[in-house]
Amino acid sequence: MPNVKGSAIESRVLWVRLHHGEEGVQRLCEVLSPDARKVVLAPPHKASWYPFPVFVELNEKIDRVFGRGDLKIVPELGRHGADANLTTVYRLFYMAGTPKWILDRASRLWDLHYDSGRLVVVRYPGNEVDVRIIDFATPHVTHCLSVYGWCQRSLELSGAKNVQSAETSCRTRGDAECVFHATWT
Q1: How far apart are CA 124 and CA 138, in angstroms?
Q2: 185: exposed, middle or buried (Cβ count in 10 Å: 0-12, 13-18, 19+)
Q3: What is the pTM for the complete model shown?
């Protein structure tokens, strides 16, 4: 079973606090499994590893409690993760790097955030890339949507304008790998 770094867990709890306050965190905890509730209340530590199912459950329950249960909030959570984690430690990279350079760095740092799979960036001429999640042990739609939102926001943070992106394939639908295609100006 894969693990995810606490920074991904922590950014979701922070999103709930920022949008719904401590009362929102309590509402969320009421619907979480005992294992996930324990992680949220501990609180999560950025540098610690957590079971991937806790990450999946947290995304799903946040979407159910504060959204419509259709996973539309999950890309927003990924975007928030980029804002929460990338505008601090990595902000100098964003100031100096191009959008493609930033995504290349993200692919090299994948192992710092997940202990399964890898992220591959396929560059095309101009302002266009494919971002591929390859060999992740237990693909899940919430993970794909989260990475999708994170990639979109990372491009914006690196100076890309008018980012257009779409998921073009997903292992949860039977495809060979999960792929996001993005263009920008």
Answers
A1: 29
A2: exposed
A3: 0.92
Bridge partner residues of 169 (DSSP)? 179
> Longest C-alpha distance within the chain, in Å?
49
76, 174, 180 from 14: Cα distances, Å: 13, 33, 26
The residues with which 4 forms a beta bridge, in sequence order, are 50, 114
Q: Are 136 and 143 in contact (CB under 8 A)?
A: yes
Neighbours of 95 (CB within 10 A): 10
| Nearby residues of 81 by Cβ (< 8 Å), 6 or more positions away | 7, 8, 11, 12, 146, 149, 150
Neighbours of 23 (CB within 10 A): 10
Where does residue 71 fall: left (phi above 0), alpha (psi -120 to 50 degrees), or beta otherwise?
left
**Core vs surface per residue 61-93: b (16+ CB within 10 A) or e:** bbbebbeeeebebbbbbbbbbbbbbbeeebeee
CB half-sphere exposure, 70, CA atoms < 13 A: 3
| Residue 122 β-bridge partners | 130
In terms of DSSP bridges, do strands 49-51 and 118-124 run parallel, antiparallel, or are they unpaired? Answer: unpaired
Q: How far apart are CA 178 and CA 111, in angstroms?
A: 17
Q: Which two tokens stand for residue 159?
A: 């100076």
What is the C-alpha R_g of the chain? 16
- Chunk the chain into consecutive blocks of 10 residues (it has 185) and report each block's average pLDDT, rounded to whole numbers: 95 97 98 98 95 98 98 97 71 68 86 95 96 96 96 91 96 95 97
